[in-house]
Amino acid sequence: MMQADIRSMEVNPAKLAMLFRKQFELCNIKQGETIAIVSDLGTRREYIQAAFAAADELGADIYEMCVNQIPGWTKVGVPTVGQCKGTLEALMACDMVLIFHVPLFAKWLKQVMNNGVRVQMIIDAPDDLEQLQSPPGLKEAVLYAHGIYEKTKSVHVTSKAGTDLHYSCGEYPVMSQYGMADEPGRFDHWGVGLIHTFPNEGSAHGTVVMQPGDVIILPYCRYVVDPVHLTIEAGHITKIEGGLDATLMREWLKDGEDFDGDPDPYAVSHLGWGLNPQCRWDSIALYGDGPERSRAASRCFPGNFLFSTGPNTQGGGKRTTRGHYDVPMRDCTISLDGTVVVEEGRLVDPKMIVPRVRR
After folding, report:
1. C-alpha span between 51 and 47 (Å, rounded)
2. Where are any strands of DSSP class E within the chain?
3. pLDDT grade, residue 330 (50/70/90)?
4. 25 Cβ partners below 8 Å, 6+ apart?
5. Please, are residues 21 and 131 in contact by the beta-carbon 8 Å criterion?
6. CA dist., res. 54 & res. 37, Å (int)
7. Quick one: pLDDT at residue 80?
8. Whole-Å CA distances, 131 to 81, 85, 297, 303
9. I need a surface site. Which of 43, 75, 146, 324 has the fewest CB within 10 A?
10. CA separation (Å) from 289 to 93, 214, 295, 299, 330?
11. 328 - beta bridge partners?
């Protein structure tokens, strides 16, 4: 049987230990600190080996805890830690958790972070770990955008495709990621660069139009192929209109209902924008739709408007629904209290623009 062509990995596997050492340095790992790896049955063994080697070079202690589940973006909130006696206590005692699956919306993550443990998530392919690793200036740009978003009361998002969305901010904290867990209690995702917050309950209203080329990064990894028109009232999607992509969205959110008419999957969740110049909108076209090549690259390309639905526990809310949808949208204009920071998909505030590094 003829096998389908698979794009070869471009990064030399022998460089992984060097990449992990650089990442540990970005995370301020010091001699004598303890790193706890949380892996699963699907974790690349070469990542574990690279992490062990890098930690050894820096004089840090490291061990692995392998869990018997494989969480992902389609199964957020899975309590992989805490059910087995002693696992939570062990992570509470370390300096950094290096986790190879998605821990977001899980109760244990907040407990560990509140104890001052930094958490570094690694879920992307080797090529992306090299290409997307946080470039100089990204942290400063993200923190600058974070500060502005934190002071924002009212947001207006528009597009020529028909998006006209309003929401208020302040009820929930702004959350930002610049690719490295470098401070106590910080969670970050190697390869990203974005900010977001959850809108005030019931405040989101208007219209969101996903157009061809927008990226459905969760639960699928695909470009939108036909327009999707969303009507949003009192913080919830009340109507989903369109063709194939609208049908996919309706079916996924319906499947996330815990009971007939459950409104939680249809709630507007985190909203923000990307800032990492290393990330590419066309990554799916270049590398295929495998999730491992799309998790960071498609989520954080500069100037996208990240629209999502469903849970908000990561920001301190009460929604734990499985009906989570993430869509980085192109060509949107984002105004914060009347000031435009993204215009038709382009960052316009110079302090948010970071030069791309050719690697």
Report:
1. 6
2. 34-40, 61-67, 96-99, 118-121, 154-159, 164-168, 175-177, 187-189, 194-197, 205-210, 215-216, 222-223, 228-233, 236-242, 271-274, 305-309, 325-329, 332-336, 339-343, 346-347
3. very high
4. 58
5. no
6. 13
7. 77
8. 30, 38, 9, 19
9. 75
10. 38, 14, 10, 13, 18
11. 306
Q: How many C-beta atoms lie closer than 10 Å to residue 42's C-beta? A: 11
| pLDDT band of 104, cuts 50, 70, 90 | confident
The pair of three-digit structure tokens given for residue 62, joined into one six-digit string: 């490291």
- pTM exceeds 0.85 for this model: yes
Cβ–Cβ < 8 Å for 96, 69? no
Flag whether pLDDT at 277 surpasses 80.
yes
> Could you give the 3-state DSSP secondary structure of residue 341?
strand
The CATH classification of domain 13-123, taken from the options 2.40.50.1070, 3.40.50.1820, 3.40.50.2300, 2.60.40.1120: 3.40.50.2300
Read off the tokens for 245. Answer: 């992509």
**Nearest Cα residue to 19 out of 141, 142, 125, 143:** 125
Mean pLDDT for the stretch of residues 158-162: 98
Cis peptide before 291 (omega within 30 of 0): no
As beta bridge partners, residue 336 has 155, 339
Residue in the block written with tokens 């992902």: 72
**Which of 26, 354, 8, 15 shows the shortest CA–CA distance to 180?**
26
Rounded mean pLDDT, 118-141? 96
The pLDDT value given to residue 5:
47
First to last CA, the chain: 37
CA pair distance 53, 56, nearest whole angstrom: 5
Q: Helix, strand, or coil here: 185?
A: coil
Structure token digits, residue 273: 């924008």
What are the tokens at 161? 């495709």
In the chain, where are the structural domains located? 13-123, 134-352
Both tokens of 354, joined, read: 């970071």
Write out pLDDT tens, residues 188-236.
Answer: 999 999 999 999 999 999 999 999 999 999 899 999 999 999 999 999 9
